[in-house]
Structure formats: C-alpha cells, structure tokens
Design goal:
- The radius of gyration is 17 Å and the shape is globular.
- The protein has 172 residues and is mostly helical.
- The relative contact order is 0.12.
- β1 and β2 form a beta hairpin.
- The longest helix has 36 residues.
- It starts with a strand and ends with a helix.
- It folds into 2 domains: 32 residues, no CATH class; 131 residues, Glutathione S-transferase Yfyf (Class Pi), Chain A, domain 2, CATH 1.20.1050.
C-alpha cells in the first residue's frame, strides 16, 4: 500500500496522496494546475478520478496480473477466461471514455490530475503488456488522449522507468 509521510502527517493510498501533494504544492514551482480552482471543474476532476478507480483500473489490473504478475511472482499460467472477460469489460469502459473525450484533448478539457491518475494502469497494458494496445488504438479519441498524456516529458520519463523495471528484473 502506498504511504506518504510528510513531517508528522501520514496519508495512504495513491489517489489521496496525489490530491494531497497537488493541494500542498500546486502553483508553487510552476504554472501547472492539476486541480482547477473552479469548484465545478474540480468536481469533474474528482469524478474522473472516481471513474478511474471504479471502472477503468479494475479490468486493467486483471489483465496486468494475469499477464505479468501471476507468472513472474507466483509461477502461475495466465487464465485465458479471465483475460477474455477483462478485455470485454475494458472495451465497454473504453467505449464510454471514447464518448467522454469527444471534442476534448483531456478528460476535463485541460490536462489535470484526472489524466495523471490514469497513467500507471494505462501504461501497464499499453506500454508493457502491449497485446491489448488495440483496445485504445481502435478508439480515436481514447488513442489521441493517451498519446497526448503519455508524450508529456515528465510522464514519459517516469513510465519508461517502470517499463525498465519489468523488462530488466525477470528474476524478481
């Protein structure tokens, strides 16, 4: 479980940690606004973070577990039925995202924490387990959104480091 200690303060779970860090540092080191000051747009960012946790991440986690984690850490073969079901579930979610992204560059219109929280799970099955990238590529709005997010320098750099871990540590 992710945990952050900040002085005497402790917070757990990746999404609350992200919100905390944005609240603490937004606007202090650059002009990037990850949670808008407008209450309506901030609410929409939270909505997309909730979508990611509730709908987007679960099928991706199943795919990644089956194709990378189970074999590597538990010496289990992937279960084709679980993979099939997860792909079907993810396809439905991506169909919704395709509609949500119509006419937008990012989930909330402008780049925000909503886009950022989608990065790890998307990269797991788009950049590391690439057999599922067609699920994104067949949906132009989703594909273009992911390409915009991924091609931000800081995102690309951190995700490539993750890929290096999975490629270079086969015996972990």
């Amino acid at each position: 479980m992710p945990v952050l200690f900040d002085g005497g303060f402790r917070i757990t779970e990746s999404r609350p940690i992200c919100r905390y860090l944005v609240s603490k540092y937004q606007g202090k080191h650059n002009d990037t606004i990850l949670i808008p000051n407008d209450v309506h747009n901030a609410g929409l960012v939270d909505q997309f973070i909730s979508y990611e946790l509730s709908y987007y991440d679960p099928p991706i986690s199943k795919l990644f577990y089956q194709e990378k984690v189970a074999k590597r850490f538990l010496n289990e073969d992937p279960d084709p039925e679980i993979i099939k079901q997860a792909r079907e579930e993810l396809a439905k979610v991506l169909d919704v995202y395709e509609k949500l992204l119509e006419g937008k560059e990012y989930l909330n219109g402008e780049y925000s924490l909503a886009d950022l929280v989608h990065c790890p799970s998307t990269y797991y099955v788009y950049g590391i387990v690439t057999t599922h990238s067609g699920l994104w590529d067949s949906r132009p709005n989703v594909k273009n959104w992911w390409n915009r997010v991924y091609n931000r320098d800081v995102i690309k750099k951190s995700l490539e480091e993750s890929k290096s871990f999975w490629e270079n540590n086969e015996n972990i």
